[in-house]
Amino acid sequence: MDQHLLRQYLSTVYELPSSSETRSPLRVSLDGDIVQDVSSLPELLTRPFTLLTAFNPRSMLLPRKVNEGRHSVLRDMLILGCYRVEQCVGYEEEPDGTWREPAWLVHDMGREEACAFGRVFRQNTIVVNRNGRPELIVTDPTCDELWKTFVGNWRVRG
Q: Which of 9, 22, 25, 151 has its CA 20 to 30 A from that of 139?
């Protein structure tokens, strides 16, 4: 994978749903320092989940309506599979950054099934969280070796 693209993926900021007490989204990225004590992370980051999107397959910009339709189909498939899904969004934090991409936080999805969804919806990568450690997994063979994994570390942003 191109190193610039990898850095972009790892520094993407995700706004994840947080507990009902705080009501503000949990802002995180995968470019943090190694976490020695996983229990120091917000509770959500200690649970298994996957981040999936159907927007812009293979990084090809599609019209908004097409992206929204694909994203809705992905949600419906996940719900039919009995998964609990919540809305989230990924974006670049640069001051001049314009990229924002809706995603689904999917609770308790197995790694293999998550990879299959990423492949079906033609995503370059997906994010899988296990034991407080996020993994960026390649799901498009034109991007890199299929299922190649880049392990990240959560960085909680203010």
A: 25
Full-prediction pTM beyond 0.90? yes
The residues with which 153 forms a beta bridge, in sequence order, are 31
Tell me how crowded residue 145 is: count the other CB atoms within 10 A of its CB.
Answer: 9
Helix (H, G, I), strand (E, B) or coil at 22: coil
Band of pLDDT at residue 20, cut at 50, 70 and 90: low
Closest C-alpha among 152, 112, 147 to residue 131: 152
Q: Please give the Cα distance from 126 to 57 (Å, whole number).
A: 12
Does residue 10 sit in helix, strand or coil? Answer: helix
- Residue 19: which region, alpha, beta or left (left: phi > 0; alpha: psi -120 to 50)? beta
